[in-house]
Automatic annotation (TrEMBL):
UniProt entry keywords in alphabetical sequence: Oxidoreductase
UniProt xrefs under Gene3D superfamilies: Aldehyde Dehydrogenase, Chain A, domain 1, Aldehyde Dehydrogenase, Chain A, domain 2
Residue intervals of the Aldehyde dehydrogenase domain: 19-467
InterPro entries xrefs: Ald_DH/histidinol_DH (IPR016161), Ald_DH_C (IPR016163), Ald_DH_N (IPR016162), Aldehyde_DH_dom (IPR015590)
Protein species of origin: Micromonospora echinofusca
CDD domains listed in its UniProt record: ALDH
Protein's name according to its UniProt entry: Aldehyde dehydrogenase family protein
Length: 476
């Protein structure tokens, strides 16, 4: 079992008077990790200590901060197998996928190490006897609350950008993956001065207490309801809220595409990481011309996925993170069936231990069903048949979320319309995943606010100061 420690004011093992939480392997229910629960007093002390460490880190030359990030990336790279194994143990992700998340995190740290020192301000055209500058400065203390579904890659993005910008960071990982957060923090801490990074563990109450502190930024990736609570807390304290929250991403399958290929894209988008991705495909609008062949192909692909523990090399579909999430997913499927949807495959809770749920394909779905209207976060592919691309575009746009969308089409006209008209932060044409490094999107509606990735994240984590500089009058 992993014995997790907190890091407060440069001291490992600090705090923990609030009790403990235990995480169980979602594949078999065995205990995996034990973590302390930070009290409100410990959270307040941690934030105060980070505030004391912040000025020294802000005054550190940008190149030195970048070099520290490179050392941290080296440490993560060397421990990639261990980081992948703890992810798999805590949340069930297949090992190969978990390791890919670590590799992505290492790459993100290196990206911010390279571009961090290059981000600067600008000069303004003022009087000839004066100098006018816009100077970016660290915001101070950044509270970072990260999710369990991709705990290394997401944390590396927010932590790397905040640290290279000169901020001190208080990190609270999800209570479902505390050991992953702890191991990541231990590796990062080897490259940083004492006090610059803080690690707090605990549940939702700990996160809420942290968001209520006098920090300068609260960066959160997770559920929409939590993000809205954080935004309300930031309105009270004056902190900047940086939120990447839930999504219900649509996939549009146009009438001119190969249905076999489209089914492969849909299966990848809906079933990767057992559907536990913010940008998973959660709604499929398929043109009637290809709907029959598409559904048949998608059903075959769902049936072919090998379900099992993430630690087994042959596993393609691991368990959901816990039975509470499985009950939520199954409840949405059952409600859809009660309202007229048809199960093509899956849709049943398997016997045995763990929190497994099969890849599920639903047809006959309507926009009023919770499985389309809300975020599911499981391996469920609800399919809606439409008569035209216009109908697909219109129905895909009806959502309280605005994270991402994918369109499979051979029509450049349809692709351009989708890029222009879909009310989301990211539009992908003919690929459910992928994209160039450094892409930065602003989620919309219930999916959050602010840049969560790319070079623009550095701007979110710094504040611009205008400086007007004149020489003293003659004779002084």
């Amino acid at each position: 079992m992993y014995e997790v420690q907190q890091l407060i004011d440069g001291v490992w093992g600090a705090g923990g008077a609030g009790g403990e939480l235990v995480v169980h392997d979602p594949a078999d229910g065995t205990p995996v990790s034990r973590a302390p629960v930070a009290t409100a007093a410990e959270v307040a002390h941690a934030v105060a200590a980070a505030g004391k460490a912040a000025p020294g880190w802000a005054a550190t030359p940008a190149a030195d901060r970048a070099e520290a990030l490179h050392r941290a990336a080296d440490a993560l790279e060397a421990a990639a197998d261990e980081l992948a194994a703890v992810q798999t143990a805590e949340m069930g992700r297949p090992l190969e996928s978990a390791r890919a998340g670590v590799v992505a995190g290492v790459g993100t740290l290196r990206q911010y190490a390279e571009i961090g020192p290059l981000r600067g301000g600008r000069t303004l055209a003022g009087g000839v006897d004066a100098i006018d500058l816009m100077v970016p400065q660290p915001r101070g203390v950044v509270a970072v609350l990260t999710p369990w579904n991709d705990p290394v890659a997401v944390a590396c993005g927010l932590l790397g950008a905040a640290l290279v910008s000169g901020n001190a960071v208080v990190h609270k990982p999800s209570e479902r993956t505390p050991a992953t957060g702890w191991l990541l923090a231990r590796l990062l801490d080897t490259a940083l001065p004492p006090g610059v990074l803080t690690l707090l563990t605990g549940g939702a109450e700990t996160g809420a207490t942290l968001a209520d502190q006098q920090v300068d930024v609260v960066a959160h990736v997770g559920a929409t309801a939590t993000g809205r609570s954080i935004a309300a807390a930031c309105a009270r304290t004056g902190a900047k809220a940086l939120l990447e929250n839930g999504g219900s991403d649509p996939l549009i399958v146009d009438g001119d595409v190969d249905p076999e290929w489209a089914a492969g894209q849909a299966a990848l988008g809906a079933f990767a990481n057992s559907g536990q991705l913010c940008v998973a495909v959660e709604r499929i609008y398929v043109h009637a011309q290809v709907a029959g062949a598409f559904v048949a192909a998608l059903t075959r692909r769902a049936d072919a996925l090998r379900m099992g523990p993430g630690r087994d090399p042959g596993t393609e579909l691991g368990p959901l993170v816990d039975r509470r999430l499985r009950d939520h997913v199954h409840g949405q499927v059952q409600a859809a069936v009660a309202d007229g949807a048809r199960i093509e495959t899956g849709g049943r809770i398997p016997d045995g231990p763990g929190s497994f749920y099969p890849a599920t394909v639903l047809t006959g779905c309507t926009d009023e069903m919770a499985v389309l209207r809300e975020e599911t976060f499981g391996p469920v592919a609800p399919v809606v048949t439409v008569d035209s691309f216009d109908e697909a575009l219109s129905r895909a746009s009806r959502s309280p979320y605005g994270l991402a969308a994918t369109v499979l089409t051979g029509s450049m006209t349809h692709a351009q319309r989708a890029c222009r008209d879909l009310p989301v932060g990211t539009v992908k044409i003919n690929a459910v995943f992928g994209g160039a490094p450094g892409g930065a999107a602003q989620p919309r509606r219930g999916s959050g606010q602010g840049f969560g990735y790319g070079p623009e994240l550095l701007d979110e984590l710094t504040a611009m100061k205008v400086v007007h500089l004149e020489a003293p009058p003659p004779g002084w």
